[in-house]
Amino acid sequence: MEVKYASIVHNIILIALSAVMALGSFESLLERYEEDGADGIFCSQRPIENTLDGSAGFWLSLYFLSKFYEFGDTVLLVLKQKPTIPLHLYHHAIMAFLTWSWVAYDWLEGSLWCVLVNSIIHFFMYTY
User: What pLDDT does residue 35 have?
Assistant: First the structure.
């Protein structure tokens, strides 16, 4: 398969994934709001073992896994013989580590907002 077509398929997958994650994380935020009020979506006081329970944990975990698929962007740039800028490489590396920490340590429940905002941005970015 030509790199151009692989890139198109890659982008279509990321568009769909971004849309699904945006909708899912939004629904999770609404669910937390219904359960815990405004505190549930901003500064939850849940016990650490319940921080990533339910759909919030699912969407954060899926978002973490999606960061590895996004490394394909870099591979496609190299295959197209286009330059990769340090910011691009840094972003992919730091996001993989950062999202891993959200899932591994349950330390930042508010990161669900990052999933929502970043998924919306990626939806438009990959559509372009």
Answer: 85
